[in-house]
Amino acid sequence: MNTDRPIGIAGAGSIGCFVGGMLAASGRRVALLARPRVIQEIATSGLRVTNFDGSERTVPTDRLTLSDDPSIFSDAQMVLVTVKSADTGEMADLVARHAPSDAIVVSLQNGVGNVPLLRERLPGRSVLGGMVPFNVVALGDGRFHRSTSGDIVIARDAAGTSALSVPGLAVRATDDIDGVQWGKLIVNLNNALNALSNIPLRQQLAQRNWRRLLADQMAEGMVAVRAEGIAPVSPTPLPSSWMPPLLRLPDGLFEMLLGRTMKIDPEARSSMWEDLQRGRRTEIDYLQGVITAIADRRGLDAPLSRRVIQLIHQAEADGKGSPGLTPEQIRAA
Ligand SMILES: NC(=O)C1=CN([C@@H]2O[C@H](COP(=O)(O)OP(=O)(O)OC[C@H]3O[C@@H](n4cnc5c(N)ncnc54)[C@H](OP(=O)(O)O)[C@@H]3O)[C@@H](O)[C@H]2O)C=CC1
Ligand SMILES: CC(C)(CO)C(=O)C(=O)O
Q1: Ligand 1: centre distance to CA 107 (Å)
Q2: Each residue's pLDDT tens digit, 52-63
Q3: Domains in the chain and their CATH numbers?
Q4: What element of type H or E holds 221?
């Protein structure tokens, strides 16, 4: 593949700026399609990508094009879709109009509906599913910090994986991207709990009552997913079915296990928490909403997911950021 054609980032926020920054830092040409406020921030402070292990990569400005004009995709070899799920349809239409027809489109989004939607809006193009297991926090002043561990996974395609894997950003290929995205959806059921808690992920996961609530929600989610005949593939080193019992372990045992399998910075929080704080619409309908839709279709009960959806919608409507609830308040809501 000709690596001198740029890699387009369709919606440069937390994930887009981090992934785009890492690719540019390794010499790839990168075209970031961003909002004016993000362009302004990077134009003023530069783009810095930092990592949970303390490392930092310098992003050379000559490898970056930054614009709110989608015509920057006109010679893209690949376009990485990094908008929130509600914006996927609109972004697909921009890609259809502006990116060359041979550009590979990769969704690096959470949820299981983005790839089918991109394929529907981009007929005849190569659209690959992807999964980002790690968290990125936008720390301001152009700094995008990766705060948890894990490698990106994308559907097997020689050109896609080789263009994206660079030092510090490993990309693995899978033959079962659907299973991987469903497995990530199960993990992402915590996005809403973390958003409602108003505490960092590490602090939340250190408390057994939060873990029990998450375990109950995951178990409920897995019943629905399995009823669809889907076998979720865990994005962590531990199988999805082990997660609920492991989450219920006492604090000391769980802490030891977590420390051996994942790195989580003290400031890491879910992307849904960031949405609530910024007064943006969340992805709740694309995460817990998928579980309740299956439950409705199959006559299953999914009371925890329903409760969490209601609380997130309430927080969106209130527009005051995270309500800072306890697990007991969520269960009783
Ligand atoms: N953040 C994280 O740690 C993780 C996120 N993910 C997933 O990755 C995806 C992206 O998340 P994240 O990076 O957090 O999202 P962000 O909201 O930080 O980034 C998306 C950016 O795209 C912008 N955007 C939307 N439409 C356009 C457009 N037409 N032109 C230019 N810019 C546009 C948004 O602006 P605006 O807000 O103004 O619409 C926003 O700045 C989501 O599906 C998320 O669930 C997966 C793993 C971890
Ligand atoms: C926190 C993380 C990495 C996993 O749940 C995530 O996917 C998100 O913040 O959207």
Answers
A1: 12
A2: 999 999 898 889
A3: 7-175 (3.40.50.720), 181-332 (1.10.1040.10)
A4: helix 208-227
